[in-house]
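Researcher: I'm preparing a figure for a lab meeting and need a structural model of a single chain. I don't have an experimental structure, so a prediction will have to do for now. The sequence is pasted below. Please return the structure as tokens so I can convert it later.
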Amino acid sequence: MKRLIITLISLILTTVFFTGCAETPENPTEPTTEIYTTQAATTQAVTTEAPTTAPPTTTEIATEPEATEAPEKPVSRPTKPERPTRPTRPTSTQDEPQFDPNYKYIAITLDDGPHWSLTYKFADKLAEYGGTATFFVVGNRVYGEQANAIKYAHDLGNEIGVHAYTHEYYYTSCSDKKFREELDKTANVIEKYTGEYPLVMRPPGGMITDSRIKSSGFAVINWNVDSADWQNVFKGEAGRKKIIKNVLSKVDEGDIILMHEIYEDSYEAFCVIVDKLYIEGYRFVTVSQLLGLTENNIGNIYYGY
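Model: Understood. Here is the structure written out token by token.
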């Protein structure tokens, strides 16, 4: 009997349990999975919606700077005076015939150049009067601007002659080899820069033997008016006045005047000399023009006429 009662109670409880599980609740809630899906879709819509205005910028967009030339690197060079331009000959002498009997002709000779500045000045001063001179040059000084200077003087009608190559030897005492070398090397460099092989030569100090005059291959030119400029340079006004007096007190028609082109004082005195002599009726020509030299005069020495 006791077992029967327990069995009936178990049957009743089982029936009640299964009946409650089958009923649907009155207020069902949305499953959590659906809530999660809807929230995700909403979030996606917000983040993908196109903005109505451009987002604010905190910095400007960098643009490429305009290209600029790099500044030139300064170069340190010694300054030199500007080369003088070729002057125009004065109208009064432009058509003047050479060796006009109304004038007195002389030859000024300028030794020991060329000089990178003064050679231009001497040539230009002469050209103011339609004049020329003979420049006896030292061969190892003919380079760079100094080479340009003798070409400039030559192009203005001046004569370029041989002096020496080193100016270290007298032609009365050096060896035959050295004598020949001093002359030939200088003549070659003159021809290189002027296009003309020289006709005339002046020995340093005016010193040369008779045999070397004959064998030199040039007309040898000394002088008969010595300005003694090299002894009076660097002495200021007194020195320049001495140079001027040495020339003006002695010069005469047909003379050959000795000066040097490497001293500023010589140039200053030279300007006074040619100014005064021009007024006195002198005209300035090269040695070869004054003496009428040709190749037939090679091997002879001249002091003036």
